[in-house]
Design goal:
Helix content is 31%, strand content 21%. The protein contains 16 helices and 20 strands. The protein has an 8-stranded parallel beta barrel with strand order 1-2-3-14-17-18-19-20, surrounded by 6 helices. It has a 5-stranded mixed sheet with strand order 7-8-11-9-10. The longest helix is centred in the C-terminal third of the chain and has 26 residues.
Length: 549
């Protein structure tokens, strides 16, 4: 603690000297101070994220928690973000509002000690090393579609309603099943089409069924779920249907060899998220019961634990296709002052080009984009007030993707109200939906394998498809209204330790600090010694500096 106080004192002197007189400090505290802090190597947030689901085996006993916290401190991190509400709605502490992990049907969660309070253990150990602890909740995701459990499943009226537009497999008797996607990873209960243009063999695992279709006719059915490993080729004059779980059963029940199959038809419907191919059940952000549910969880965390902050993840809509509930239609019509005649076509329609979905804007599209972002901004404003009213010392922060030009699809504008984006989908007043001013700090995902703009340029990609470019964009969009920490996804650097070190240095040089996602990869790659090479000395997180938030 004494060492950190000394670092803070020396760094503050340097900062103040760079800003000039006291009067100028007061006048520019929310802008120039944060700009100057970028240059101060002693003032950097070093945040390690502990994902709940990924780290169950690392964080299920007091001894394991003590070991991980010790490693975190030795690597010169100063902040922990502990995930305490999974995207399925389960928690690792005694909650009045969410079920405990030990009660889940998910085999991965079963066996987690029913009487174990992860938060209590992490907070106790972290205090030994003067490490901050911020508790993260997956805000509007609260259910597992695969296991049909979680608060969002139990309360279906809470769920988002999805504008579900899909290509479908149609058999000779007109039975249909939705195609999840083309040439992508096949997950639970999904049906994927693999084309010869992108695959020579099926990349799917053995736990499914493969159907070869040549010139529109089924020529072979291989149920790898029963026969085991087998390399399955993709027909050069057709495609391969790959199905798992419920989709596999549909194939078994409906498709036969020599049958004619069609994959050109499209169907659309409005359905709850639990009835789609989505993994998680999302909740409608404007539903008052949903909002109260999230606030109840936040309140019990702030009230019951001696923590430093509350972090929101997935504080957004699922994607561009939500929410099309009756509630959202009614509230949107109030906002624009007229009825939406064709719902949802007046918002947008969907077509397929080269087997990919393309959104075609309707007459209310831009208004809809702004309205959704405004809903999330209002939620952040009210949640910030709630946190501060219960404990003014608890900091309020969030994680988002850094790809701001695309993030409207999640209904989020994490930028400053003073930043006016020049995007074709944005209304002239879209900047009013920015929520950076409600935050004590923001973590943006610089989730790219390329570190420099030069590297992304060489591939013909936008500049912000690199760590450097995404960091620059993050600082531009937030306009220095809050502390902004670039975040790195360690899986992007598997077997590339030198690139990972370069990415850390780049992030610290461009933003107020770095967040690493996630603990599980540090353990997996044994990168604790590597981190000690990069983080050679302790630093002070800027969000801890009094008067600058």
């Amino acid at each position: 603690m004494l060492k950190r106080i000394l670092i803070f004192f020396l760094s503050t002197v340097i900062l103040f000297a760079s800003l000039g007189s006291i009067s100028s400090i007061e006048a520019k505290a929310n802008d120039n101070a944060k700009r100057n802090l970028i240059k101060n190597k002693n003032m950097k947030a070093r945040i390690l994220w502990y994902d709940l689901s990924a780290n169950l085996e690392n964080l299920n006993t007091p001894e394991k928690v003590a070991n991980i916290i010790s490693k975190t401190a030795e690597a010169n991190f100063n902040t922990i973000v502990l995930d305490v509400k999974s995207s399925t709605g389960f928690v690792p502490y005694p909650s009045e509002y969410s079920p405990h992990l030990s009660t889940s049907k998910n085999p991965k969660y079963q066996g987690y000690p029913a009487d174990f309070d992860l938060i209590e253990n992490v907070v106790r150990e972290a205090k030994k090393y003067d490490l901050e602890v911020h508790l993260n909740i997956n805000t509007f995701a609260a259910g597992s579609n695969q296991y049909a459990e979680g608060p969002a499943i139990e309360n279906q009226k809470w769920q988002t309603i999805v504008y579900d537009v899909t290509r479908v497999v149609t058999d000779s008797e007109d039975n249909k099943y939705s195609i999840t996607g083309f040439d992508i990873t096949r997950n639970s209960d999904q049906l994927i089409i693999y084309t010869p243009e992108n695959n020579t063999i099926s990349p799917a695992n053995r736990w499914g069924i493969e159907v070869k279709v040549e010139n529109g006719i089924v020529t072979e059915i291989i149920d790898r779920n029963t026969i085991g490993e087998q390399e399955v080729t993709v027909p050069k004059n057709g495609y391969l249907i790959s199905a798992h779980g419920k989709a596999r059963q549909w194939v078994l029940d409906n498709i036969q060899i020599n049958e004619e199959i069609d994959i050109s038809q499209v169907q659309s419907d409005l359905r709850p998220t639990s009835e789609t191919n989505a993994t998680e059940a999302f909740m409608n952000p404007i539903n008052p019961e949903v909002q109260q549910f999230t606030w109840n969880i936040i309140s019990e965390l702030v009230t019951n634990y001696d923590i430093d902050g509350i972090t929101l993840d997935r504080a957004r809509y699922n994607n561009i296709y939500t929410d099309f509930s009756d509630l959202s239609r009614s509230e949107f019509e109030k906002e624009i002052g007229q009825k939406v005649t064709n719902w949802p076509e007046d918002i947008f329609t969907v077509k397929f080009e080269d087997n990919k979905k393309v959104t075609v804007p309707g007459k209310h599209y831009k208004e809809w984009i702004k309205w959704r972002a405004a809903n999330i901004e209002k939620y952040f404003e009210e949640t910030s007030k709630l946190v501060k009213s219960q404990n003014s010392d608890v900091l309020f922060n969030t994680y988002v993707g850094s790809w701001h030009p695309l993030y409207y699809s999640e209904g989020v504008n994490w930028g400053s109200k003073n930043y006016q984006p020049d995007y074709e989908w944005a209304t002239p007043d879209y900047h009013e939906t920015g929520y950076a001013e409600h935050l004590d700090f923001l973590m943006t995902g610089l989730y790219y394998g390329d570190v420099t703009i030069e590297e992304s340029d060489a591939k013909g990609l936008p500049y912000w498809y690199s760590v450097e470019g995404a960091a620059n964009l993050s600082m531009e969009v937030t306009n220095y209204e809050t502390f902004t920490y670039g975040s790195l996804y360690l899986l992007d650097y598997q077997d590339r330790p030198e690139s990972f070190k370069e990415a850390i240095r780049m992030t610290e040089s461009k933003t107020h600090g770095v967040m690493l996602f996630d603990l599980v990869y540090i353990e997996m790659y044994d990168w604790w010694p590597l981190l000690q090479e990069v983080f050679t000395k302790e630093t002070v997180a800027p969000h801890t500096i009094p008067g600058l938030n």
